[in-house]
Every structure is written in C-alpha cells, then in structure tokens.
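Onboarding guide, step 5: your first structure request.
Type a short instruction followed by the sequence, for example:

Predict the 3D structure of this protein.
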Amino acid sequence: MEKIWIITIATGTFIIINFLFYKALNVYYKNEFGKKMWKLGGTKVYFWQGSIFVSIAGITLIMYLLKWLNVVTF
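The system replies with structure tokens like these:
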C-alpha cells in the first residue's frame, strides 16, 4: 500500500510541475519562435521535452526532500 502512495505523490507532483511549466512558458515559447514555427512539430517537441525534463528534476528533488524529512520511505 505504501508504494501506491509514493507513486500517487510522484504522479501528482509531475502533473502539477508540468502544468506550471506550461502556464509559465507557453506564451514565451510561442512569441520566441513565432506562429509559423510553432505549428511545426519540432518546436513543440522541444517545448515538451523541456517540460518533461523540468518535471522529472522537480519530482526528484521533492521526493528526496520528503524522504529526508521522513514523510515517505522508499
């Protein structure tokens, strides 16, 4: 049962960080690359790749912080 909670916390954190990244930087990326370039698949892949990397880094930091505070154990 404990593993389910860890997975739930990690998934929820990933979704929240990804959403915050999207809200904060979506307009910036669209303005930086322009409407024509944004419609190409490569630019969107670049944006979402960065979003996933930031979310994974955030999850790693938060999960190890929770482990250090003895909130979760894994």
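Each response can be followed by summary notes, for example: The longest helix spans residues 2-38.
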